[in-house]
Amino acid sequence: MAALAYTLGKREINHYFSVRSAKVLALAAVLLLAGCHLASRRYRGNDSCEYLLSSGRFLGEKVWQPHSCMMHKYKYNEAKNCLVDKHIAFVGDSRIRQLFYSFVKIINPQFKEEGNKHENIPFEDKIASVKVDFLWHPEVNGSMKQCIKVWAEDSVAKPHVIVAGAATWSIKIHNGSNEALSQYKMNITSIAPLLEKLAKTSDVYWVLQDPVYEDLLSENRKMITNEKIDAYNEAAVSVLNSSTRNSKSHVKMFSVSKLIAQETIMESLDGLHLPESSRETTKVLNREQTDEWKGWMQLVILIYHISGASTVLFRLNFLVVVLCIVMDRPYQFYYFVPLVTVWFMVIYVTLALWPQIIQKKANGSCFWHFGLLLKLAFLLLCICFLAYSQGAFEKIFSLWPLSKCFELKGNVYEWWFRWRLDRYVVFHGMLFAFTYLTLQKRQILSEGKGEPLFSSKISNVLLFISVVSFLTYSIWASSCKNKAECNELHPSVSVVQILAFILIRNIPGYARSVYSSFFAWFGKISLELFTCQYHIWLAADTRGILVLIPGNPMLNIIVSTFIFVCVAHEISQITNDLAQIIIPKDNSSLLKRLACIAAFFCGLLILSSIQDKSRY
């Protein structure tokens, strides 16, 4: 009865809600959210990221994202282009000086932190006409007021951007007294009208004080407590937000650094200043994906003929090539697809080289089995040579046109690292396929439904060894402390966990005969999910999460995930349909189309090379 009720319920749900209706719902959500964003942009004006200065969260390790947008990590040439003919001034204490250094190093990465720190520090890039100054005013007092007053009264010499803030010196010098706090509030009250006047023609930011890590503070800074810092911040906010009675204050409060400091200040060297690692909060998100299952994805291609192989390559690369052209990204940016494509070609070429060993020959004589093993041994030697000879590897892939496909940021080191990380997994996959077919031919395997794969005794022994191996590898991987050593051992030992999982999953007949339809459905669109995540789910080249619903991260991730999966499924269907149209069944037509495709891509590579030369 229960099974019948489940079946009837499933049919009823499928009748009203299908993949097609899900996609329609996703499209409606996209259009609705786009309309909301357009209306919000029109209402708020040019401020498209209201949370940039006030709130956000860490996405993993040291990657900060505001609640309503994504941060762009500027290259030095992009920063120069944005700041042409601009003058930026940082006014304040050592914490503001830290911001100044971080800002200048975006424009000039070679800029050194040297000289007397308790004085003004100028910087100028004459080529880009960019001027950045740090003005040492560690207290909000008459000296800082005079500096701001000069700018407020001189319409010519005022900076385009002013970043100011101070408090810790006032706390330190006056030993955290309440009188000093009252004086601070009076001083900032006298400066507020000048800042407001400046903010009408320049961008003015007041930086609120970050928390400190009190356990690390030196004796002469022990009076700088988080309680005092909160009191000074409240004073600054109350004064600057109420400096204009009839309209909203034009001075922007930079409070987001407090949230960043709460997560990172414990790594500080002195308890007062942010650690170096947290001063760049837009680091590319660290995604150490080993993709160890890609070898087993290759097993099915051993039975493909030329048309099948062409279909696989088209399916793998069509979406990525389109994204490379449309989004102006290098092929290596989507590193998983180049890896799978290269290993696909390696397997195909290995099996296609003389002597070609087909099933009929292999069944006729064991000599052909020996020939196939020699091919695999030669493949293993080639892999080992390239893995331990970085120079030879880079010379090969630095040749045109390979360099255009595998370079990232001007070199092929990233490609060498990714390729080397799982270099043996395809060899292990081919060896497993050979062993499996051999055991199948000798009728050693029992693949009937519900039957164990081997005899009961052998199955129990292998199952026990597999469980122990799987657990041992998992414990080792989770407890490995040295990343370099782990990466070095991983290619050799990862096969243990893969083989253990396969045996655990397949030796018991009941486990082999069932599967999760939920994960199988996602498995059919796994390539599109992996590729589309760069621009839909994660967005901004994996540096952040797509923000459709600002200020509500949980609801945002639910809605964006739903849309992301629907888009990936639709792209999967489109790619499969195009593959059937573009890849014909007869070999002569196939070769002609492959030649046309190759000519098209050669033309793209030549145009790309010409464009690169024109840039320099």
The computed structural class is alpha/beta
CATH topology of the domain at 74-279: Rossmann fold
Q: Helical residue percent?
A: 55-70%
Shape: elongated
Query: What spatial order of strands do you see in the largest sheet?
Result: 4-5-3-6-7-8
Q: State the fourth-level CATH superfamily of the domain at 74-279.
A: SGNH hydrolase
Q: What is the CATH architecture assignment of the domain at 74-279?
A: 3-Layer(aba) Sandwich
Low-confidence stretches: 1-6, 278-308
How confident is the prediction overall: mean pLDDT? 78
Number of helices: 25
What is the rounded Rg? 31 Å
End-to-end Cα distance, whole Å, is 74 Å
DSSP strand count: 8
Strand content: 5-15%
CATH class of the domain at 74-279: Alpha Beta
Describe the largest sheet: 6 strands, mixed
Summary keywords:
about 625 residues; alpha/beta; Rossmann fold; two-stranded antiparallel ribbon; 25 helices; 8 strands
Summarize the structure.
This protein has 616 residues and is an alpha/beta fold. It has helices at residues 2-16, 19-44, 76-82, 94-107, 142-153, 168-173, 178-199, 226-241, 256-264, 294-297, 306-327, 336-352, 359-364, 367-387, 390-397, 402-406, 413-421, 425-441, 456-479, 483-506, 509-512, 517-524, 526-537, 553-582, 587-615, and strands at residues 56-58, 64-66, 87-92, 121-125, 130-136, 161-165, 203-207, 252-254.
